[in-house]
Amino acid sequence: MTRYRHIIRVFAQICLGATFVYASGNKLYDGSASFLQDLRNFKFSFLQAPWTEIIAYGLPWLELIVGICLVADFCRGGSAYWSLLLSIVFFAAVGSAWWRGIDLRCGCFGISIEAVYYPRKILELTAMIVASLAVIRLGKDQSRFFQISVAKQSNRD
């Protein structure tokens, strides 16, 4: 891996991880009850109790674990795929709310008193998706933690 690719990957990984740690920290500090109300504001018909409660109390911990793993470069591949999955789900949820014209206070980074400015939020989530893809793509050349590799044997007769 060239030096520039390595720098880009590390930068994307640290920024992405810090974003997840910051977002989870605000949700955990402010209380998951306010995040539960923020989830209900999306008005998804398929998201009913007890799923909203499970997401409201579990998602901040998942974000914290993913963020710490990215910043610490621990299980990079798995945490990068989790960050990609979470970013795509967030993108779809915010895009759906924008499409349906909901005046949303999403609570992405804790308690929000202002309505979401959708173009900026979509741009932020797109940047998170791109950063996740960069970490996944640029990190493939390096060895991974817990990776099991089988050495190729040559058939010499």
Task: Please give a structural write-up.
The chain is mainly alpha-helical and 157 residues long. It contains 5 helices and no strands. The chain is globular, with a radius of gyration of 18 Å. Residues 143-151 have low confidence and may be disordered.
Summarize the structure.
This protein is mostly helical and 157 residues long. 66% of the residues lie in helices and 0% in strands. It has helices at residues 3-30, 32-40, 51-72, 76-99, 118-138.
The largest sheet, given as strand count, sense and whether it forms a barrel, is:
none
> What is the N-to-C succession of helices and strands?
HHHHH
Spans with pLDDT under 50 lasting ≥5 residues?
143-151
How much helical structure, as a percent, in the residues?
55-70%
